[in-house]
Each structure stands twice: as structure tokens, then as C-alpha cells.
Design brief:
With about 290 residues, this protein is of the alpha/beta class. It has three domains: about 120 residues, Rossmann fold (3-Layer(aba) Sandwich); about 30 residues, no CATH class; about 130 residues, 2-Layer Sandwich (Hypothetical Protein Tm841, Chain: A,domain 3). Helices cover about 45% and strands about 25% of the residues. It is built from twelve helices and twelve strands. Helix 1 links the parallel strand 1 and strand 2. The longest helix has 18 residues.
Length: about 290
Amino acid sequence: MDIEKEKIGFVTDEVCDIPEEIINENDISVVRYKLDFQELSEIPGNIYQKIREGEKRGIKNLLIKTSQPSINDFLSVFKEKLEKFEEVLCITFSSKISGAYNSAIQAKKFLEKELQDRVHIFDSLRGTGCEGLIVLKAISLAKEKMPIPNIISNLTKEIPNVKMLAMYKNSRWLEASGRFPTIGNMIINQAEKIDIKPIFGFKNGKLNIVTIKRNVKELSIALFEEFEKTTRNARKAENKIKIAITHADNIEEVEKLKTMILSLKNTEISFVNLLCFPVGGHVGPGTLVISWKQ
């Protein structure tokens, strides 16, 4: 006797930064990135603890190497999910930044034809808490019995309303990771000496500098000021703002940011979590990110 399958199973990658308890509650399958800690591999703790201890020990190469999930990583998860669910919706990190979306697309092609039709892949064009909020939105729509084509249509319309503000603690990690051209590093380093820092956000699926903050002493205050200004009209219109805070081992500033956010009307914190290591290893300890959907 065949066991009746559940309707929709969800797959995502670890850049979504959704906390483990929410992942378990919703039976979300998370595909991991590959990490090579290099000279930090023998140091215990998470990546941020490794980096800080590595600095104390005078280790010169504090960077980790990362690579996207493979086709086989997605393929094995798809097969596992299809055993239990009628259909699968996979939501990935922005294809403009990572190859995870393409790996998922290629993995689907290795399934039998009748199984391919049951797997749907969505490019979030976002990452970290933004991607996580999109995944949670998809799950809430599925609970309302919405079919996958309608969920995808809804998410596509939602993407412009899912925003992020991010600030690093120290520019040295971006410089070392090679994520900026040389001229960009020079400008950012000079600006940092006089307490000027850029705030990053997503535009067309890519990371861009959205504004510059002067006299930055605390990341939480700088981010809150920009968040308050950016969401003011939406909050006045009584729109509920759902928020995710992610961070690179910066609990003190997280608590300050949470308190300031919750002092505003029409705000709700969906989750707080560590910034995933494939991203955090490049932006470095102390980075603070606020993502929201309005």
C-alpha cells in the first residue's frame, strides 16, 4: 500500500541563514556550501572564533576558501525530498553572486523526466536574511494550499519588497577576499580611518553600496537610522515589517539593534541568526545585517 505523500517539500541553501529550529519545524532541506578553512582548520570554534584566535596567534592567511554546492549535492536532496513530497520547491542564493542556482538547475536535468516536472527552482536574487524571509513566505503560502506556480508568481512580485542593509566591522576582510577592485579597497580604507562606512544592499541580485554613513561608532545605530528612514512610509501605512537580523558573532550590537527596531510600530522580528560561514568568512567578524520584507 502506497503512503500518501505530502504536497510541497522545501529545499534551500545555507545562505538563507534560517535558524535550525525553524528549519526543523518546517522540514526544510538545506544544501551546504564547501568550506576549506586552510590554516584555521586546527583552531576550534566557528569561523569567527577561528579568525579571532588566528589573529591572536599571528596567522597571516585568515581567509577560508568557499565553493558552491555541487550538482550532486542538490540531486541527492531532490531525490530524497521526492520520496516524501508530491512536489519540491527549491529557493537559492542569488544567481548573480553564486552558482548555487545553476547547480540546482543542472541537478534537476539528471532526474527522470516525470520527476523533473515535480521539481521547481526559484532564484531569490537575494541572500542571508532576505533569502530566509523569502523561503518563509513561500512556506506560509504553501500552508494556505497555494499551488507552486502561484507561489512562484507571488514571490517574484515580492522580491522588490525584500530589502537588506549590511555593514562590516573591518574592511580588511573584503579587501583580502578580493571582492572589491583595488581602487575600491583604497577608497574604503581611507574612509574607514575617518569613521565613514558604506552600507550595502541588493540591487538586481547583486551587492551594491546603497549609502554612506559618517561618524560611525556603532553599526547598530547606523543601520537602525537607515532602516527607520527607509521603512517610514510603509510603517505609517500600517504595513507589517517582518525582519531578520544576521551577524558575524556580534551579539552585543544585535541586542541593541533589536531593542531599537522593536521600539517602532508595525515591526516584527522573524528570526536572528549567525551569518552563514560561506559569506561571513569573506566579510569578517562583527558584520551586522538587517533584512526585511514590507
